[in-house]
Amino acid sequence: ARVVGTDQYSDLAVLHVEDDVPADKLMPLPLANSSALRVGQDVVAIGNPFGLSGSMSRGIISQTNRLLPEENAGFSIPGIIQIDAAINPGNSGGPLLDSTGKVVGMTTAILSDTGSFSGVGFAIPSNTIHKIIPELIAHGNYNHPFLGISGVSITPDIANELGLNEAKGVVVASVTYGSPADSAGIKGKATIYNDINYGLESGNDNDNNEADIILGIDNKPVRTMDDIINNIELSKSVGDTVILKVLRHGNIHDINVKLGTKPDPST
């Protein structure tokens, strides 16, 4: 086989089998609508855990729309399905099926301290596959929409530090120079947030030393950074415009931002 296209941001790739395979030997599995998945729904995973080919495990949907951090690469994969079906090294790339045999996702990772299954597995949803794979086949790559901010979800401690009445929204920690957010005038600042200290560190490029707080996107409330990432990745394309509801110096502004193309993570 040869590689047709890859997309690191979604952990997807397309291979083309170059051998002359008879059409009657190829039986593609139908894709289901992963947005219709519900917590508690039965699912089946098929793969090759530890090299044991064609193994099947059964479980349920534990949660949907998780954000899967790619810590070494510096980005997160949105819309992830969490399952409790046993997933181990060798399962990655295998199908996650509903009870009718339709593909609802592709297994991709586990959360484990030992490297073996501990009850938390993850899969790329079928709707993401349906959206990205045709572009990989046609062009070899997929252009992801890009806003250009990093931010921190407001906790009660941060809300108290900033003098806010409610712990909701996202503080803009930094804005990528030349990004769509930068062009639209979104303001960020150097910020220290960790489990011990939620203090703000002074920046020098913003009026009154204040960072913008994003309260909404496209008339939807924003409570965490996940809300922003999921909205942009799952429902927007390059060139689309999003409306950010921004709290700045005590006033709320609606700011239009035209999304650009996310830079290659390898550069």
What does this structure look like?
This protein is 13% helix and 36% strand. It contains four helices and 16 strands. It has helices spanning 126-139, 156-162, 180-183, 225-235; strands at residues 2-7, 12-16, 42-47, 55-70, 75-83, 95-97, 103-110, 121-125, 145-146, 149-153, 170-175, 213-217, 220-221, 241-248, 251-258, 260-261. The strands form four sheets. Strands 3-4-5-8-7-6 form a six-stranded antiparallel barrel. Strands 10, 11, 12, 13, 14 and 15 form a six-stranded antiparallel sheet that branches. Strands 1-2 form a two-stranded antiparallel sheet. The longest helix has 14 residues, at 126-139. The model is unreliable at 190-208 (pLDDT under 50).
Major pleated sheet:
6 strands, antiparallel, barrel
Succession of helices and strands: EEEEEEEEHEEHEHEEHEEE
**Gyration radius over CA:** 21 Å
Q: Regions with pLDDT < 50 over 5+ consecutive residues?
A: 190-208
Structural class: mainly beta
Strand content: 35-45%
The rounded distance between the terminal residues' Cα atoms is 27 Å
* Oligomerization category of the chains in this entry: single chain
Number of helices: 4
Q: Percent range for helical residues?
A: 10-25%
Could you tell me the number of beta strands? Answer: 16
Identify the overall geometry.
Answer: globular
Mean pLDDT: 87
Spatial sequence of strands, sheet with the most strands: 3-4-5-8-7-6
Task: Write a short abstract of this structure.
By secondary structure, the protein is mostly beta strands.
